[in-house]
Backbone:
């Protein structure tokens, strides 16, 4: 049987790319503005809804183009927190997950940028999946659009690139998706409501600082000491912490934004007195705040080695750790575990083959 020919995917195209596409097919380029508005603002998945587009043009688009890059396979909602995990399938039958976290005054969507992850952080289930491929800009954007369509009136207020994968390794599609989210024609999200989280790719942090995005940046820190960081985050061997600190200083200065340090609390590894002192010193050198994150179990991935040995810092010790930082005028946020009953909490995203 002859394989079905793949259609041209419009999802993930920028405004200029859409304008150029319509010029190529003999249409006025302002059609690009119209389609851009329908896709990203009205969140339309049906060309027949686009009534300001001529019927003949809609038929051409129906025949030749695609508006979806993902299929929603499964939805799981936490009974305790209302956190919802979405399982998507790509056109080549890869699986990715996204998580919607409801909070008092906002709904935060955690999106993925890769199928799996190549970094192998020892406290993260995604790393245990291994790495398959990067997601396209369309696949990144579609997580937001499909979930926004699914939840209806419950508006997504914040996006964090903290799902599966390392966003700055998949740099161009990640940045392109963020530019679409923040484009004035989408009436979408402000830059201050988008956070890109990275384990630390210094050259890409510097490149991001040269862009016009100026989104929030979070560094997955987890230790101020290279020997410990390399043990739990192998990427630190390639990009030692000081290289990343130099890069985020540049980012903070150029964008005039405050850096967030993500810090997963691991018993007897990064919750010691010397860790408190190192964090105080670091936070005094760069405008920043710290998110203290409870270590969430990754036993559902049957880990071996150090991943199997990790234990969470006791809650009372996390509070003591936070108070010591606050006594030194450090801004500390205590991240609550959300969705661990459905393996949707921080560090738990993974799809078994």
Residues:
């Amino acid at each position: 049987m002859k394989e079905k020919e793949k259609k041209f995917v419009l999802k993930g195209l920028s405004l200029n790319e859409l304008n150029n596409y319509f010029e190529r097919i003999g249409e006025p380029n302002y059609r690009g503005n119209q389609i851009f508005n329908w896709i990203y603002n009205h969140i339309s998945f049906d060309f027949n809804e686009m009534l300001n587009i001529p019927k003949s043009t809609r038929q051409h688009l129906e025949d030749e183009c695609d508006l979806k890059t993902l299929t929603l396979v499964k939805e799981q909602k936490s009974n305790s927190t209302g956190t919802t995990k979405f399982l998507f399938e790509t056109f080549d039958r890869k699986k990715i997950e996204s998580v919607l976290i409801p909070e008092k005054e906002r709904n935060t969507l955690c999106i993925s940028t890769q199928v799996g992850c190549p970094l192998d952080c020892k406290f993260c289930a995604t790393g245990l999946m291994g790495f398959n491929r990067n997601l396209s800009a369309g696949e990144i954007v579609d997580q937001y659009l499909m979930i926004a369509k699914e939840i209806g009136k419950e508006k997504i207020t914040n996006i964090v690139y903290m799902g599966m994968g390392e966003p700055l390794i998949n740099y161009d599609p990640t940045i392109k998706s963020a530019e679409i989210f923040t484009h004035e024609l989408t009436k979408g999200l402000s830059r201050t409501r988008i956070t890109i989280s990275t384990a630390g790719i210094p050259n890409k942090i510097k490149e991001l600082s040269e862009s016009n995005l100026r989104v929030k940046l979070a560094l997955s820190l987890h230790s101020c000491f290279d020997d410990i960081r390399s043990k739990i985050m192998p990427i630190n061997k390639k990009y030692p912490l000081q290289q990343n600190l130099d890069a985020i200083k540049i980012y903070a200065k150029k964008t005039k934004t405050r850096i967030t340090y993500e810090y997963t609390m691991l018993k007897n590894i990064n919750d010691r007195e010397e860790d408190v002192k190192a964090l105080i010193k670091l936070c005094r050198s760069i405008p920043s705040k710290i998110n203290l994150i409870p270590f969430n179990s990754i036993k559902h991935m049957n880990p071996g080695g150090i991943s199997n040995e990790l234990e969470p810092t006791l809650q009372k010790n996390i509070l003591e750790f936070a108070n010591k930082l606050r006594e030194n005028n450090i801004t500390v946020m205590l991240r609550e575990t959300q969705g661990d009953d459905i393996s949707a909490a921080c560090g738990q995203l993974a799809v078994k083959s």
Q: What stands out?
A: DSSP finds 13 helices and 14 strands in the chain. Residues 70-342 form a domain with the TIM Barrel fold (CATH 3.20.20.70).
